[in-house]
Write a structure and sequence with these properties.
- By secondary structure, the chain is of the alpha/beta class.
- The protein is built from 13 helices and 10 strands.
- An 8-stranded mixed beta sheet has the order 1-2-5-6-7-8-9-10, sandwiched between helices.
- Helix 7 packs parallel to helix 8.
Length: 379
């Protein structure tokens, strides 16, 4: 075991020993400000009857401080152009999502690739990433556009059936599932996630199809029993995003999501199910350095992660973290080559690549089938 990996594990043990935080620790509003400038007008105004002002005194209005302006928003470069969402496939898939009351991360997270993935390519095969367990998350990462709440609505017990029905209707052979975090539920939604995967596999077999399932999971607060439950649900790819480099983690992600914890989740998924492929994603443009990225790639390989994707961080609104840099397509090519040289089985790298982007699916399907063949031969 490398000294770096052992240090990260020690860091994770220390964080856990401090004790679990409650949702209130993270979601309660800040205390009222004591800023003397919060008053609208000076005491020279008659406070008993604000409409009566002493004419012999000069009214001194103290204006409330305006909220700080966000950092200057960088203009988007020419290479950040996505396909418009207007095709027949896009409209058909959107209608199915609406009819069944499903949520997709494509819409909730404002993904720029929705027109391309939902619209399909020359073969008209569409791809959608279905978001289960609702459209509201119990965490509040500063890069994410998904809604947040301390107590989202209850889980839909019919969701496994609805999701499986939609996927069979679309005729997909590779589907990506993701979910919001549900820290408000005892098992954090792991049982529900498992049920959706199993229903997908069951319905696809009944339809005479071989459906491959990729699951982009929460961290389940580092509870490895819950990680193992999902890893052994029948999925083919276990994905969990590290999102950014270690140095920026506390600023970019919710405080309950730790760098060492993410590495531990990815490592345990493969321990629990050695056949599964593990996958993660890194956003660029948040202020990371080349050295930061190389260290993150090294840490990921140390826990035997198979697939990594790189994509440009795009600011969803003025309330979210600003973009520090638009990384050029040439630089993404360099990171792809470097990561491949480090031993990752597959690397998708480009400004508009996302963790669930369809660019890697055909490769992943072949990789999964190759691995299954190897296991059969070994047996």
């Amino acid at each position: 075991m490398s000294p770096r990996l052992e240090a990260l594990r020690a860091q994770l043990r220390e964080e856990i020993s401090v004790g679990q935080h409650t949702l209130e620790d993270f979601a309660l509003p800040p205390p009222p400000s004591n800023d003397e400038n919060d008053s609208h007008i000076d005491e020279t105004i008659n406070t008993n009857n604000p409409t009566i002002i002493d004419p012999n005194k000069t009214m001194n209005i103290i204006r409330r401080k305006a909220p700080p302006r966000p950092a200057k928003i960088l203009p988007k470069p020419s290479w950040l152009k996505a396909q418009p969402a207007t095709s027949e496939n896009y409209l058909s898939l959107r209608n199915t999502v609406r009819e069944l009351g499903l949520a997709t991360v494509c819409e909730e997270a404002k993904c720029p690739n929705i027109g391309e993935c939902w619209g399909g390519g020359p073969d008209s095969t569409a791809t959608a990433t279905i978001m289960i367990m609702g459209d509201t998350c119990t965490r509040g990462c500063s890069f994410c556009a998904v809604k947040t709440s301390r107590k989202p609505g209850p889980l839909d017990p019919e969701e496994p059936e609805k999701v499986a029905s939609a996927v069979i209707k679309w005729g997909l052979d590779y589907v990506v599932l993701t979910s919001v975090d549900r820290d408000d539920i005892e098992d954090q939604g792991s049982g529900h996630f498992r049920s959706v995967v199993q229903k997908l596999k069951e319905k696809s077999r009944a339809a005479g199809k071989e459906l491959l399932v990729e699951a982009l999971t929460p961290d389940f607060r580092g509870d490895m029993d819950l990680v193992g439950r999902v890893a052994n649900s029948g999925l083919d790819v276990y994905a969990h995003n590290i999102e950014t480099v270690e140095r920026l983690t506390r600023r970019v992600r919710d405080r309950r999501a730790g760098y060492a914890q993410t590495l531990a989740v990815l490592e345990h998924a493969k321990i629990a199910n050695p056949v599964v492929l593990t996958k993660t994603s890194i956003m660029l443009g948040l202020g990371e350095t080349d050295e930061d990225i190389r260290q993150t790639l090294t840490d990921l390989r140390n826990v035997d992660v198979d697939v990594v994707t790189f994509g440009q961080y795009l600011q969803p609104s003025r309330r979210h973290l600003p973009v520090k840099e638009y990384v050029t397509p040439e630089k993404y090519d360099e990171w792809r080559e470097e990561a491949e040289g480090m031993g990752f089985k597959y690397v998708a790298s480009g400004p508009l690549v996302r963790s669930s982007y369809k660019a890697g699916e055909f490769f992943l399907k072949n990789l999964i089938k190759e691995r299954e063949s190897e296991i059969e031969l070994a047996a």
